[in-house]
Amino acid sequence: MREGVRLAARLLESDAYKDVADYRIHPANDILANDDALDLWIRQTVGTARHVSGTCKMGPDTDPMAVIDQYCRVRGVEKLWVADASVMPRIPRSGGAHATVIMIGERVVDWIAAG
């Protein structure tokens, strides 16, 4: 988790996000630099949620808000794909998201394997 938070902070500061986010609010730089402080921040901040979706917009290169392409590849980051409910614009009304998320994962694995 610690390295994931640090990677996310670095990504947010990359050129790919310069027009998306003005600045990072949390965690502060002093927390990111200290393992014990970051561990405490993670324990106090991280939680779970059900059926989160729509957080990774899919779209063409011309859409500045699209973070993934039609193959679920993250724009601006090589060899990184998103294969979960975050690529779905909304959760299906009947039956929940489980089967759809499994299908998304299986399809993305096919694209990755095909190169």
Structural commentary:
- The protein has 115 residues and is mainly α.
- The protein is 37% helix and 0% strand.
- The chain is built from four helices and no strands.
- The protein has helices spanning 2-12, 29-32, 35-45, 98-114.
- The radius of gyration is 16 Å and the shape is globular.
- The chain starts with a helix and ends with a helix.
What number of domains? 2
Radius of gyration: 16 Å
Task: Work out the number of β strands.
Answer: 0
H and E order:
HHHH
Main β-sheet description: none
Helix content: 25-40%
Q: List the uncertain runs.
A: none
Determine the strand fraction and express it as a percent band.
Answer: under 5%
Span between termini: 28 Å
Q: State mean pLDDT (0 to 100 scale).
A: 90
Shape: globular
Helical stretch count? 4
Q: Helix/strand-derived class? A: mainly alpha
Concise account of the structure shown:
The chain is mainly α and 115 residues long. It has four helices and no strands. It folds into two domains: 2-45, no CATH class; 50-115, no CATH class.
Key phrases:
37% helix, 2 domains, 115 residues
Architecture blueprint of SSEs:
Layout: H1 2-12, H2 29-32, H3 35-45, H4 98-114
